[in-house]
Each structure stands twice: as C-alpha cells, then as structure tokens.
Specification:
By secondary structure, the chain is an all-alpha fold. Helices cover 74% and strands 0% of the residues.
C-alpha cells in the first residue's frame, strides 16, 4: 500500500460526520421528525403516555412492596393502554419511521463492515468469496 492511500483517523471521523449529516437529511429521518411532532401535538396520545408513565411508577411500587395482586392489575391496565396507543395511526407511523431510520443505519453499518472486510481480503491477495486473506500461509482468519 502506498503512502498516499493511507488515511488518518481524523480523516475517517470527518467523513463519518459528513455521512451522519447526510443521514440526518434523509427522507427517513425527515419523516421520523414529522411523526414525532404530530405525536407531541396529539392530546389523546399524550394522555395515554402520561397514564402509562403513572401506572409504571405504581407497578414499580407494587413490585417493591410485593403487592402481587395490585401489580397484576396494574400490568393488565398497562397492557390495555399500550394496545390502545398502538392502534392510533400516528403512533403506528411513528413506530414505522423509527424502524425505517434504524434499518437505514443498520444498512450503512453493514455496508461499511463488509466493504472494509472485502478491501482487507483483496489487498492481501485473498479470496473475497471464501473470506480468506492472502499471505501464503495456511492460517486463515475469516473476519465476517
């Protein structure tokens, strides 16, 4: 590898920051932000979230003091409230937008990982298909 092909950690971080800006400007992130704003403005959603938080505090209290009957009833109420919340279309859209952003991030991570691995294998004269680096020894270290 020639000296001109070597990059510094600082350069890598700068490129990662540029990639992060691109991701933050993606359609997936834009939709997520809009869905989040709608959730914050929706009174029914906010009421349900507040009630869930209140009941969660009670559940912790009941569990701490070993009040199993009260805990069971509270957990049943929590389950019902979660189901009610999940039936609201904007909540469904918000959760889907979270999954979409997460999928995008995971895809970028996988592409980086796979590309780095392939470049290491190729640069050592190895075989990308088998995942083995080159070097002439019988030692093989599959990275993936």
């Amino acid at each position: 590898m020639s000296k001109s092909e070597i990059v510094t950690r600082k350069e890598i971080i700068e490129q990662a920051e540029k990639l992060a800006v691109l991701i933050a400007q993606s359609a997936e992130v834009d939709f997520f932000k809009r869905a989040e704003q709608q959730i914050k403005k929706n009174e029914k959603v906010q009421r349900l979230i507040a009630e869930i938080k209140r009941l969660q505090k009670h559940a912790v209290h009941y569990e701490h003091y070993k009040k199993s009957k009260a805990l069971e009833e509270t957990e049943a109420k929590l389950e019902q409230l979660h189901q009610e919340l999940d039936q609201i279309p904007i909540v469904q859209e918000f959760k889907q937008s979270q999954r979409d952003v997460n999928d995008l991030l995971q895809m970028v991570t996988n592409i980086i990982s796979n590309t780095v691995t392939d470049k290491i294998i190729e640069s050592t004269g190895g075989n990308v298909l088998t995942g083995e680096t080159g070097g002439g020894s019988n030692f093989s270290c599959p990275i993936r």
